[in-house]
């Protein structure tokens, strides 16, 4: 049986209703993704956060009454609570209390597959828990399984701060080694001049489905938040024959815990290292514009907002009304449709051609290796064999910084 959960949210009267509703719906999805079942949602309209209890005393008493009536064992707050608030609320409610950040960390803990992913999650969890240790001893000793308890075992959490700090330092050292390895891998990619495409977007926008379709891969795809956690990279051929590396990245979300942004910096670096971004948007989501803004903000934070980008509005098959895109260049597609997948790849080439250096070149038939290089490392629009000259006349486009460009100009 699923764990029964009560959700609690404070609504600032100045906040737009759509934005608040969307955030609450997201909290429900996060709870379900973590394996819980929402039995009640309680909202308080309040201008300021109560410094000791987050919401007012009266509302807290109302929540206590509600959870005593129901079977709810967990109360989830739609915000990050301070250590003091967390303690005070748990004492009053006599239930396990977690906040939005801890819930997200919990999902990440269950999704991490690689060694690096697991280390990053544990680091984020420990950094989140360190200031919240005081007064948690009795509660932690009661923990069994359940939401908000994945990741570090309770013995780790009950240990003193020094032990946790040592563990944090140890994880950071181990992650530095992973970062070095990743940098060496990137360096090799740069030396071989591999063109890198990153698929980014809000969580559950269809990134993994698109990635699997274009690479004939089988990365985990499900209608869940954060289905992908560890970045995957595969080679893909664009319609002209141009070869690129494409990466599926972790989904973005509103109010991502700061510890997670820091811990997943190296994962998100796949985005900063990219030459091109495909921004996947769930066009059928009622709050897709807000989700787009969240992704744009995170790309700015990562200093990746200058990269050439194609916005792909996905799930057009679920749209009831005419859809008007808010960003260009863009396409509206269903990533389950093979023709639409080809349209996306065609559009990527179209955008690149506007950015790249246009060239015309003649390659003798005897230089087969050189011809092959241009076919896979540039976008060729026409190729003609001239019998009289025994060679190929090429017209195409190439990245302005590609080493092959110098050979064209010689």
UniProtKB/TrEMBL annotation:
Complex and partners: Monomer. Associates with the 50S ribosomal subunit.
Chain ranges of the Hflx-type G domain: 195-356
Keywords recorded for this protein, A-Z: Cytoplasm, GTP-binding, Magnesium, Metal-binding, Nucleotide-binding
Source organism: Halobacillus shinanisalinarum
Reported function: GTPase that associates with the 50S ribosomal subunit and may have a role during protein synthesis or ribosome biogenesis.
The keyword Nucleotide-binding belongs to this UniProt entry's keyword annotation: yes
Compartmental location: Cytoplasm
Family the entry assigns: Belongs to the TRAFAC class OBG-HflX-like GTPase superfamily. HflX GTPase family.
Name recorded for this polypeptide: GTPase HflX
